[in-house]
Amino acid sequence: MDFIEICSKCGGKCCFEARPPISNKRLKILMENGIGPEFVEFGKYKHLKLKNDGYCVLFENGKCKIHKIKPETCVAGPITFDIKGGKLELYIKKETICPLVKFLKENEAVFREHLKIATEKIVELIKELDNGELEEILKIEEPETEKILEISLKELL
Questions:
Q1: Could you give phi then psi for residue 54, rounded to 5 degrees?
Q2: pLDDT greater than 80 at residue 57
Q3: Which of 9, 93, 125, 137 could potentially form a cystine with 97 if both were Cys, beta carbons 3.0 to 4.6 Å apart?
Q4: What confidence tens digit (pLDDT) does each residue in 112-156 have?
């Protein structure tokens, strides 16, 4: 079983109650690909809306409708982040939330590659957000995670 197969069989656990942040750059990419502003909630930070069933508005038939251009935090998943004391802290979700975690932990090379991509995407997002948006995103609790890495923001930004 590989990365994509695991994700496609999961049923979209990470897409339930997900409100992935959308930078202005990502919004432009989405709009250029036919995803209009009606799919985005413009509030304290821009994010994809939820459907009445609690799933991301772009989750259809068990998969992401915009897989190739999905938001940075979706690409990074099941790795998430926080910023504390001038450091970017990376966390991985627990296996109970994401079946991909077990696969990543059992395949070190794949895990390292995904961590590299996740870090790049998260840094890309952080650079694109304004301070107010980033502050709101950092208020979101991410229970059931464990810290896997800490990097000085000075090294990244």
A1: 95, -5
A2: yes
A3: 93
A4: 999 999 999 999 999 999 999 999 999 999 889 999 999 998 887
152 token code pair: 């000085």
CB of 23 closer than 8 Å to CB of 130: no
Give the distance between the most distant pair of CA atoms in the chain: 42
* Residue 48 one-letter amino acid: L
Burial code (b: 16+ CB inside 10 Å, e: under 16) for 79-109 equals bbbbeeeebbbbbbbeeebbbbbebbeeeee
- For residue range 110-123, what is the model confidence (pLDDT) as tens digits? 999 999 999 999 99
User: What are 69's two structure tokens?
Assistant: 């251009």
The Cα–Cα gap between 140 and 127 comes to 18
CA distance 47 to 50: 9
Whether the Cβ atoms of residue 23 and residue 47 lie closer than 8 Å to each other: no
